[in-house]
Design a protein that fits this description.
The structure is a homodimer.
Chain A: E1 22-28, E2 37-42, E3 45-49, E4 65-67, H1 71-74, E5 80-84, H2 90-93, H3 96-102, E6 108-110, H4 112-124, E7 131-133, E8 139-142, E9 145-152, E10 159-166, E11 169-173, H5 191-200, E12 204-208, H6 224-234, E13 239-242, H7 248-260, E14 264-268, H8 270-281, H9 295-298, E15 306-310, H10 320-325, E16 339-342, H11 351-363, E17 367-370, H12 384-394, E18 398-402, H13 406-418, E19 433-438, E20 441-447, E21 453-456, E22 459-460, H14 465-477, E23 479-486, E24 498-502, H15 512-527, H16 533-552, E25 557-564
Parallel strand pairs in A: 3-5, 5-6, 6-7, 11-12, 12-18, 13-15, 13-16, 14-15, 16-17, 23-25
Antiparallel strand pairs in A: 1-2, 1-19, 2-3, 4-21, 8-9, 9-10, 10-11, 19-20, 21-22, 23-24
Helix pairs in contact in A: 5-12, 6-7, 12-13, 15-16
EC number (chains A, B): 3.1.-.-
Pfam family, one (chains A, B): Lactamase_B_2
Family (chains A, B): Belongs to the metallo-beta-lactamase superfamily. RNA-metabolizing metallo-beta-lactamase-like family. Bacterial RNase J subfamily.
């Protein structure tokens, strides 16, 4: 029977994994874009591929990060052989320190650049993890699992796909992938290697779904360089290029253009400075002697002699670029005729912030060059045409789309079917859905609970749905506090009650009329001999809540406090 | 001198308008998309074109609507000759009732459909405005202004452009406009009329900027019909089409397809039902006898015999479509194989909500057809190619881009210049910037204050920036309330202090450690003889604030209440 279009999957507790079977469960990254983490289980042993974070949306106010839900493996951490990382983006490595807190000796496998970024992150967490560097072409035995690494092309250097061999079969996990046939560093996605795996027989393909809805092919990264070069060649004033702080190849193209047009370069933004240092140390970024200067020096050079490479391309409100757009940057004041290039994608959900920055810059007179009006960015994820190449090279028996929202997963599944994968062998398994590969056939057999785990400030997990739902109420309507001091023996108010609001109204008299209502209600509760502070609190909450709804038609949180003395 | 790229414009109070000059000020709609309202002044008399609302964004939590800022004309309402409406969208008519509250007898001019929508709105406000119906081709003397109306094509029937003649010159305001050359109702944008105005000499053109960044031409509306027809022809289960409740022509195409494929139709959503009734009554929508059924009846018909036309295409959380996507709709449960068509644009800022709905529907197994994967929507605003036709037909002496964010205004200005309008005659004037047309030349001469006016529930204007900034803080971090009762004579705490949070943590013990700190601080203030409740409150706020920042690295609002007894 087809497993496509069957809704969100089973809800039962998964049955025991049959002997010789392989179990796959995503604890994040399927049904959402971010916090990628896939757990493989064979004969009681576990292998983790990636462990990233998700950035919060409007429904998760005030939260810094969202982690994969580790509960399903929390009691089994001793059975984990290793974490294998496909590449160094936050949504693939960002949650590693949180997992290491629970098992510090867990070995982490990854490529050189990936591990360098992870090491910098772990240092901030004061951790010294066991890092094992691997390269494309290598095979490693990781306990019950034999793992082989393949070069893949993505928007960060040194990305890997991971093939996992057990007696249950051969699984290939692509990680994030595209098939740029003219990559800047010459490091192609290893389609030949994948074809060889296909000859051997791939039992399950876990494949990046991000751009499955997009027809055709991603433009080669190489075509961005000349566009950037043209822009930089023609500017007659200051130029600022914003891009992702991990997109080393994009930065290289900007540096090359700067050199060609006689400009020196300053990096702006902590993560840009840090990552480009790492990339340069590892030989992934070539910075000619004398090209780089620091920001303080740069702002004193003639405008035409310097180029700024900045973070902030997603409209992050505290970034240097946002501050420039608001005219609040300490060192750089945008003026008419300046040029700002956003050499970056627009991550869904950031539209308002990014357009806010663009509008702010345009308002100050800058020319803003971005994806919408020039070819200054291409995606790092395979479009539909490339995915077809992958399917046809790998010829998998079973397919499990990963890395994407439901609309992406479904589109990817349809591509698989069009290349000849049997519909009943394509599993749409969101986070927590258990996929068992038994006798060469993948099926969803149950579900483990996967919730959101929030990091807010220093703590993990103490902010949950109840706190977030309070924040949503407070953020929409503020609150009204009612304070009452009563005689504990008689329930009589011993001082006048106060009614005050925050986030409710700018009008200082807005709540004046409520005080009399509270006083009347307190007379009533006293007359009825009510001394229980909880009951008194409920009574005043009720009258004030009703009054506010009728008078203002709003729903602030009503917070009564009744103190007995 | 060029007025392009000169930043946001002057900040001075505008000088008196010279005799014989015409003044133009937008109180909304320029530098933003929404709340369009332009005020024209000649010899002490005022004319208002449009009076719409803006829908709030993340930075304006809890607010229902944002109005244009009427302050600049509040004391001069007696000098207003009339409001002229270009069309019936909310961002052009939604604020009329709020202006009428201040001057109920102000006459409102507009086309038949526009006024019908306004009348329905005013009825909800219990207003009986003076409505004067006008048609394309008509000329009217409105006091000091002679006004002529022109048919324009947009995503709502019966839209008008407005030419305003005074001795100061001829101004043409396009309203929202596109140049569909094969419009469904045969009602073309009157380019011939605009050409005639051009012959006469247009001194100032106020022109829609929404799609100025988009190259080329908007696909004719007529090409949507066959796509919708194809989708509806091939579905074998339930089909739901969501679109804007004012897009009568789009709904007509859906109805036509329903008739052709033997389906009856139910409207879902209050505004859809209301607007389509109005459109049918005015002969703008043709509903064959017996086609419409109500929702209760529709859900009992065989699935293939009914088509639902629904609101909710922007992912509004309370809409019927959102409830279906969450599996919470009372009457319609989406199941695998159902089809949902979003025949609508994706308004910037709504991406998360819309993709949330799409993912929810896909997760339940529905096939979702939308702008991203099929040609089921076209914009109602002229792309760059069409704007060039407008400029070349009208040949204006001066141009003032309207209806758009800064990036749109700038793009539109550049188009004007490319058609030969002198750069110094293109004015980029955001809300509040005063443009004076004197001796045939438009210049920005000053600025009046234009802020956001918020409607929240029943009140207008009592929610301002201070309340919103409190809401943002509360929404991000919740609050911690500290309650202390002190002896008013000694400043001594007469009951144990309480420290409690909302929106701060799910952990009931999260704040336990703060109580002791408050007690210590109260001992200190008492020892120092401090009895002033305000000072005591500040002291406990300080210690708790510092403790929370250090312990949690969060910034909740700290709300101390010190009650003297």
């Amino acid at each position: 029977m087809s497993q496509l279009g069957n809704g969100p999957g089973p809800n039962n507790t998964p049955p025991p994994l049959p002997d010789g079977g392989l179990r796959v469960v995503a604890l994040g990254g399927i049904g959402e874009v971010g916090r990628n983490m896939t757990v493989f289980e064979y004969e009681g042993r576990l292998l983790i591929v990636d462990c990233g974070v998700l950035f919060p949306e409007d429904a998760q106010p005030g939260v810094d990060l969202i982690l994969p839900d580790f509960r399903a493996i929390e009691s089994r951490l001793d059975e984990v052989e290793a974490i294998v990382l496909t590449h160094g983006h936050e949504d693939h490595i960002g949650a590693v320190p949180f997992l290491l807190r629970m098992r510090p000796d867990l070995p982490v496998y990854g490529s050189r650049f990936t591990l360098a970024l992870l090491a910098a992150k772990c240092k901030e967490h004061r951790q010294r993890p066991t890092l094992v560097e691997v390269k494309e072409g290598e095979r490693r035995g990781l306990g019950a699992f034999e793992v082989e690494f393949f070069a893949v092309n993505h928007s960060i250097p040194d990305a890997l796909a991971v093939a996992i061999r057990t007696p249950a079969g051969l699984v290939l996990h692509t990680g994030d992938i595209k098939l740029d046939q003219l990559p800047l560093d010459g490091r192609l996605t290893d389609l030949a290697g994948f074809s060889r795996l296909g000859d051997e027989g791939v039992d399950l393909l876990c494949v990046d779904s991000t751009n499955a809805e997009v027809p055709g092919f991603v433009t080669p990264e190489r075509e961005i360089g000349p566009v950037l070069d043209d822009v930089i060649a023609t500017v007659s004033q200051r130029v600022i290029v914003a891009c992702f702080a991990s997109h080393v190849h994009r930065v290289q193209q900007v540096l090359d253009a700067a050199v060609k047009h006689g400009k020196r370069v300053a990096f702006v933004g902590r993560s840009m400075v840090r990552n480009m240092n790492i990339a340069a140390e590892l030989g992934l970024l070539t910075i000619p002697e004398g090209l780089l200067i620091d920001l303080d020096e740069a702002v004193n050079l003639p405008e035409t002699k310097v180029l700024f490479v900045s973070t902030g391309s997603q409209g992050e409100p505290l970034s240097a670029l946002s501050r420039m757009a608001r005219g609040e940057h300490r060192q750089i004041s945008i003026k008419a005729g300046d040029t700002v290039v956003l050499a970056s994608s627009l991550i869904p959900g950031n539209e308002n912030a990014v357009f806010g920055v663009i509008n702010g810059l345009v308002r100050l007179g800058a020319n803003v060059v971005h994806q919408g009006n020039a070819k200054v960015h291409v995606s790092g994820h395979a479009s539909a045409g490339e995915l077809l190449f992958l399917y046809n090279a790998i010829r998998p028996s079973n397919v499990m789309p990963v890395h994407g929202e439901w609309r992406h997963l479904r589109a990817n599944a349809e591509l698989a079917v069009r290349t000849g994968v049997a519909e009943e062998n394509v599993v749409l398994a969101e986070d927590g859905v258990v996929v068992d590969l038994v006798d060469g056939k993948a099926t969803t057999t149950g579900r483990v609970e996967v919730g959101y785990v929030y990091v807010d400030g220093l703590s993990v997990g103490d902010v949950g749905e109840s706190t977030l739902s309070d924040r949503l109420v407070l953020g929409e309507g503020g609150f009204i506090a009612i304070n009452v001091v009563v005689d504990s023996a008689t329930g009589r108010a011993v001082s006048p009650p106060t009614v005050s609001g925050r986030g409710f109204s700018d009008d200082p008299k807005a709540l004046d009329a409520a005080v009399a209502l509270v006083e009347m209600e307190l007379s009533r509760t006293e007359a009825e001999g009510i001394t229980d502070t909880h009951r008194i609190a409920q009574a005043v909450r009720r009258v004030v809540g009703r009054w506010v709804a009728e008078t203002y038609r709003r729903r602030p949180m009503i917070v009564p406090t009744v103190i007995p003395v």
